[in-house]
Design goal:
325 residues, alpha+beta, Jelly Rolls, 4-stranded antiparallel β-sheet, binds the ligand C=C1C[C@]23C[C@@]1(O)CC[C@H]2[C@@]12CC[C@H](O)[C@@](C)(C(=O)O1)[C@H]2[C@@H]3C(=O)O, binds 2-oxoglutaric acid, binds fe (ii) ion, iron, gibberellin 2-beta-dioxygenase activity, metal-binding, gibberellin 2beta-dioxygenase, metal ion binding
Length: 325
């Protein structure tokens, strides 16, 4: 039996308020400047904010409205869309290994057919729900593809669609997660504990209530100021492996706000299950040998789901001593 540990109270950790995280205006015309800014942010923080993207307000507010309506339902009705195994509605329990947090959520596979089937247990107007979710996914996927192409260009990789091809594949294993963190009234609490995202890239949009924090290497936490008009973008473990550690899959967490509800929606861009993940040849040299053994996305997902939220999954695939050649 797995015993859940209580969601912790935010206490004595070091919180650094005065670091300016990179904000990237993707509407600027100069592609080479844009790709250099993105590469710099991914190397230093594994994280940046995107503004002036092309996802319309209409698409975002339709999605937000559906999310609000779902979380506003009485608990027994929401439970009909659960349990999250891993898709569906979950409350407080995260994953299968005893992690808990002050959050309720809905995780959906990104395929329109799967959304449409599941929407029957989620919404009183399933067609409206599935059209809002599919429209949102299509629009954020386009932004994600554009960002991934700019990354490849900035890294000098000859095949500039090497990353975006994986997430635009019809069999891509991308998912969407809607999170709702109710106010905690007294002390701030951990809503979604420290972790890295397993996939290639995450695009997260939230309402105007803060809570997201990213971890610096020394254990200090940097709060990310909320901006409902932009996206927070972070590198996932697969992109760290494909760039041979040049980009970092940043550890992050979400804490509750004392007075207001935080709502976030995260799109996790992933490759098809049978994709073999290995460092791109361009990222490997004598001075920078391959860090990870090749694995398929299916292998990686299996490992991720067998571990706790905060475990360093990628370390399982790290080459040791004489394997480093
Ligand atoms: C504890 C877990 C929840 C998670 C699967 C895992 O075993 C480890 C990774 C977790 C995570 C983090 C990013 C995403 O929110 C998520 C959907 C994912 O792909 O990996 C969650 C998983 C989950 O909640 O099912
Ligand atoms: O809600 C947030 O700000 C973070 C959520 C998150 O990290 C996740 O869903 O993986
Ligand atoms: Fe995350």
């Amino acid at each position: 039996m797995v015993v859940a540990s209580p969601a912790s109270i935010i206490g004595s950790e070091k919180i650094i308020e005065d670091i300016e995280l990179p904000v990237i205006d993707v509407s600027i015309g100069d592609r080479s400047e844009l790709s250099n800014l993105i590469v710099g942010a991914c190397e230093k923080y594994g994280f940046f904010k995107v503004i002036n993207h092309r996802v319309s307000n209409e698409i975002i507010s339709k999605m937000e409205q559906e999310s609000l309506s779902f979380f506003a339902k009485p608990f027994p009705e929401k439970e009909l869309a659960g349990p999250a195994n891993p898709f569906g509605y979950g409350c407080k329990n995260i994953g299968f290994n005893g992690d808990i947090g002050e959050v309720e959520y809905l995780v959906l596979n990104s395929h329109p057919l799967s959304i449409s089937q599941r929407s029957k247990s989620i919404s009183n107007d399933p067609n409206k729900f599935s059209s809002a979710v599919s429209g949102y996914i299509e629009a954020v996927r386009e932004v994600a593809c554009e960002i991934l192409d700019l990354m490849a260009e900035g890294l000098g990789v000859p095949d500039t669609s090497v990353f975006s091809r994986l997430i635009s594949d019809v069999d891509s294993d991308s998912i969407i997660r809607l999170n709702h963190y109710p106010p905690s009234y007294s002390t701030n609490r951990v809503g979604f504990g420290e972790h890295s995202d397993p996939q290639i890239l995450t695009l997260l949009r939230s309402n105007d209530v803060g809570g997201l924090q990213i971890s610096l290497n020394d254990g200090a936490w940097v709060p990310v100021s909320p901006d409902p008009t932009g996206f927070c973008v972070n590198v996932g473990d697969v992109l760290q492996a494909m760039t041979n550690g040049r980009f970092v899959s940043v550890r992050h967490r979400a804490v509750t706000n004392s007075y207001n509800s935080r709502m976030s929606m995260a799109y996790f861009a992933a490759p098809p299950l049978d994709t073999e993940i290995a460092a791109l040849p361009h990222m490997v040299s004598a001075a920078r040998p391959t860090l990870y053994r090749p694995f398929t996305w299916a292998d990686y997902k299996k490992a991720a789901y067998s571990l706790r939220l905060g475990d360093a999954r990628l370390d399982l695939f790290r080459k040791q001593g004489d394997e480093l050649a």
